[in-house]
Amino acid sequence: MHRTLCSRSSTAVVRRVVAGVERARVVASIPTRATASAVRRASRAQFRGIARSASATAEAPSDAPRASEPHAATVWKAAIDFKFVRDNAEAVQKNAGVRRVDVNVAEVVAKYEALNALSFKCDEIREKRNANAKSMKGKMEKETRDALIAEGKALKDSLAELEVELATLENELQTMAQRLPNLTHPDVPVGGEENATVVAEVGSQRAFTFPVQNHVDIGEKLGMFDFETGSKVSGSRFVYLTGVGAMLELALINWAFAKVLSKGFKPMMVPDMVRSSVVEKCGFQPRAENTQVYSIENSDLCMAGTAELLLGGVYMDEVVEESQLPIKMAAFSHCFRTEAGAAGAQTRGMYRLHQFSKVEMFVVATPEQSDAIHQELKDIEIEMFQELGFHFKVLDMPTEDLGAPAYRKFDVEAWMPALERYGEISSASNCTDYQARRLNIKYRPNPVDGKKQPLVHCHTLNATACAIPRMIVTILENFQQEDGSVVVPEPLRPYLGGMDVLRPEA
């Protein structure tokens, strides 16, 4: 039996919690009317800061600030359902705990209640100001008018101070609440990577009759890699793909695009740079101590670590019609990652690079569609890797391995003979409305009985169609021959001019 988010006695509660999020149609609004001028008075310098969003890594960095510590200012607001958090605080805290996210839900709720109280106080003063203004209409003694004017000025000054406090409080609430991870599918295993559940296994390990070579040695004999020049020109963990290496990358890209095209995805080529605010809204930390994101100095731009960020931004701040959904997009992009903290044998060669190419799938859907689409994305990955002849496992990843946006994530791990282990080659995540609430992506449901329906936040999903370096690793190590050649998987041959074997250079 799969391990679930909580014990048997509390599973029903969590299922209701998750269902509540899925049914949520309109985010709870915070009753604040802080004027633009009051926000500006709250210190322009303070509001230039960048929010610390929830971590996209499996575990929050040890030096991440606790919810009780001072907060950086936010420059954008997430449409977080604070009423839901307040009404389900215990379940939300437990969910953060099993995902190893350091956030104090009780403090979030307390801050939300304080914000409501302060907002109510501001409303009371506004009512008094309105009453004061009305009372000055008509003729009256100068002494009486002067007293009313003085009272009005005092009310105005008092309101201005409270609105600054209100803006600061709302900023603190956002900074704290943006660390909350998404809720978790009830069937997701609890714990670390070792607790992943195998949901499918395809093929079997190849029995070699000769000593297995690693992909670096194979590729260098084939004239595919030039790590020496990559290191000389760009630094460690960069590579030049040369000869059949360059051809194989292009073949993989074209094969992957042909496949996703046949599945109804719109192909796209996207920029390599993305605004840091978009990175944050997608659930990553561009300025965290152990970030995987390269930030560009003296700008608000980052080098994109995945096309997910660029595709997520396509419908940012937009409303689509229900009839348009699901929207399926697929993009080729270069990906840039610091690989901070990465170490071990798997860092040698192509397994972990600072720059690599990838074809990514991204879907914008309704809440009712997202679960089935998640299964569809997983099935597309299985179909692709099965066609290539890989031996691999599909894993339902546990709570501590989920990035902040993921409600559920399936990883595909292929057998890599030289490493003598399975290595991740793709993943598929359902992020439900987590990213959409931050990116402000909504749809308008179809009319009911001719009546217009309120806007609803979309669900977003992403999946890897083809991560080029690890696909090359898997091909070279699994299809190597004793003479140093490598058999080309049949689906790739048309994209290599009919080449069926890669042979060592003379």
UniProtKB/TrEMBL annotation:
E.C. designation(s): 6.1.1.11
Binding positions for L-serine per the UniProt entry: 306, 337, 360, 462
Keywords assigned: Aminoacyl-tRNA synthetase, ATP-binding, Coiled coil, Ligase, Nucleotide-binding, Protein biosynthesis
InterPro entries hit by this protein: aa-tRNA-synt_IIb, aa-tRNA-synth_II, aa-tRNA-synth_II/BPL/LPL, Ser-tRNA-ligase_type_1, Ser-tRNA-synth_1_N, SerRS_1_N_sf, SerRS_core, tRNA-bd_arm
Source superkingdom: Eukaryota
Site (Important for serine binding): 464
PROSITE patterns: AA_TRNA_LIGASE_II
Name of the protein described by the UniProt record: serine--tRNA ligase
GO CC aspect terms: cytoplasm
Organism: Ostreococcus tauri (Marine green alga)
Binding site for ATP: 337-339, 424-427
A Gene Ontology BP annotation from the UniProt entry: seryl-tRNA aminoacylation
Domain Aminoacyl-transfer RNA synthetases class-II family profile residues, every copy: 263-489
First-level EC class: ligase
Coiled-coil ranges per UniProt: 145-179
GO MF entry, a single one: serine-tRNA ligase activity
